Amino acid sequence: MNDDTTGKGLSDAELAAEQGIALPDKEVVSILDLNADLALALDAAAPIDLGVAANANVAAPIDAAVGANVLSTGSTAQALADQGALVNQGIHADATANAVQDSGLEQGASPDGAVAADPTDPAGTDAGGAVPSLPADPTDPAGTDAAGGAVPSLPADGTVPSTGDVGSTVGSAADGSLLNVDVNLNGDANIAAPINGAVAANANVAAPIDASVAANVGSVDSNAVSIAQQTAVINQDITGDATANSDQTSDITQP
Question: Which are the contacts of 218, defined by CB distance < 8 A and separation ≥ 6?
Fold first, then answer.
């Protein structure tokens, strides 16, 4: 026994009962609908106060000698560097840095906004107008909602009312956007950063440098002599105080 169920299509009556709708043109179909509304209010204040005081002595005696023979025969290169350095450094002073900052900052108030509706308002009004009526009370024997209008009722036989042609409702879905994004951003920022600093320093720096260089490059029977002799006597003293005072007073008012 063979049961052949393949190859059966729709009958003429079934084809006639089918419904079809025409898709809209491509240019009227929106894949992404993006609506962004940005409102930013920014108040920024950064008062900066800096005090610097320094006492410094710097001494850097430098002595250098260079001798070279390059591709020469029977030549002599001699370099002699003799340095005698006597450095006496003294600081008899005070380094004082005072940084006094008094900041009074008052930053603007946030944008005015509408007051939200009060659900306990007996007058039935919010900050901008009438409050929408509440949904109908199913226990209301009179069949009226909160605003006094008639509440729609279901048919007595319990059937669901017809929603019309299904084909026409499917067509309305193709007319809209596949992705609809609506962004509303309201930002209000108050930023204050008072900065105060003070630096005080006493310093003595001494760097005697002595150098001597002698070279023979590619030469025959050549003599290169380099002598570097350094004598450095450095006396450093600091008599004084390094004082840094930082006093900051900030009065910041932010709503």
Answer: 70, 71
Of 71, 32, 28, the closest CA to residue 172 belongs to 28
Q: Rounded to whole angstroms, how far apart are CA atoms 102 and 88? A: 43
**What is d(CA 81, CA 183) in angstroms, rounded to the nearest whole number?**
78
pLDDT tens digits, residue range 184-242? Answer: 888 888 889 999 999 999 999 999 999 999 998 988 888 899 999 999 999 989 898 89
* Tokens 């003070």 belong to residue: 198
Q: Which helix (H) or strand (E) holds 233?
A: strand 223-239
Hey, is 28 helix, strand or coil?
helix
Q: Which of 211, 207, 237, 201 is nearest to 59 (CA)?
A: 207
Which residue type is seen at 73? T
- The DSSP call for residue 176 is S
